[in-house]
Structures are given as C-alpha cells and as structure tokens.
Amino acid sequence: MDKLRSCLAEFIGTFALIFIGIGAIKAAGHDNLAIALAHGLTIAVFVSATLHISGGQLNPAVTFGVLCGGHITLATAIRHWISQLLGAFSAALICLGLFGRDVVVTGTPQLAINLSPAQGILVEGILTFFLVFVVYGTAVDARGRGLAGFAIGATITLDILFAGPLTGGAINPARVFGPALAANFWKAHYVYWLGPMLGGMLAGLVYRVFMEQKPAPANN
Q1: How far apart are CA 73 and CA 70, in angstroms?
Q2: Average pLDDT by consecutive 10-residue portion of the chain (220 residues)?
Q3: SS3 at position 80
Q4: Nearest-CA neighbor of 169 among 91, 100, 115?
Q5: Is residue 7 a contact partner of residue 82, using CB atoms and an 8 Å limit?
C-alpha cells in the first residue's frame, strides 16, 4: 500500500504541474513572470503536500538525482518515473481536449531560435543542478529540512525566469514528455532529457560526496 500511495502522490503532483502549466501558458501568453510563478507555486504546493508520502519529487531528473545520491532504490525510482510520466501525459491529454493541439504545442518547452541544442542541454543541466541541490538541502538532508516546498518552488520560479526565453525552462523531462506525446510534437526532445538528467545526476553525486555529513567512526 505504501508503494501505491507513493506512486499516486507522484502522479497527482506531476499531473497538477502539467495541467496548471499549460493552462498558465495559454492564459499568460509571453508573460514569463506569470508562467514562472504558476509553475513555482504549483511545485511549492504539491511538494509540500507529497513530501511525506513520496519525497515530493514530481520530476524524473529529481528522482534520478536522489537515486544517484543513494537515497532511494532503483525499483522506487522506476515506479516514480512511470507515475510522473503518466501524470504528465494524462494532464496534457485533458488540455488537448480542452484547448486543442496548438495550445499544447505552445505549452511544450522549446528552444529559442538562436539557441543550439548543445546550449540548451547546458542551460537545462545547470538549472536542474541548482534545483536538485536545493531539493537535497531542504528535503533530503535531515539537517536542513524545513520550508522545502517554498525553497523548491522558488528555485523553479528562478529557473524559469532565467530560462523561459531560452529553453522554455523545462528543468523536468516530464514537463516536456507529457505535452509532446499528447500533441505528437518532438522537436529537440532529447535536449530536455539529457540536460536535466545529467544536471540531476551531478547534483546528487556532489551533494553525496561533499555535503552530506558522514557518520563519525566508532571508537574502538
């Protein structure tokens, strides 16, 4: 039952992010501040609601970072990945029915015309590193737990404020996968897996090696 609860929490939280994200993009148009706040507030709320159930990951790259840091098992990561992608796809399908394909395509993060895929991977990777580092510092590491939802949501807001005009500020493969699958729109899709997954992995490893407090050696 705990596994089901965890998967359902990841499904619901990711569903909310994609559903509200696409709706906000439809309503706000090119207002990047409004889009950043919509995504950041959604993450803040649903991380707070799911943190004690599933860890409030809601992002395959965050799950990968927590896996690389040794805080969840591969089996748990796979269950969360499936739940996150299903949640994203389900939300995008509903938006497709509500708003039509053009809105869903617009809600799929895309590279700016003057940005190469390699640059997109770098931007997405760096910003996801920041996100996963904050996740570790506020939600994973017992020494720093507190205001995790606010801190993680604020990081998403900052990331999108920076990257919205460049890559769409996905920082989350599910945020691209769900709308892409619903609308059959796969332009430069690999950018939004490689960048976030590499950034999440690096953050998990850096935090594990350099930041986590190691247990004191036993006295003989």
Answers
A1: 7
A2: 94 98 93 97 97 97 97 97 98 97 96 96 98 96 87 98 97 98 97 98 96 64
A3: helix
A4: 115
A5: yes
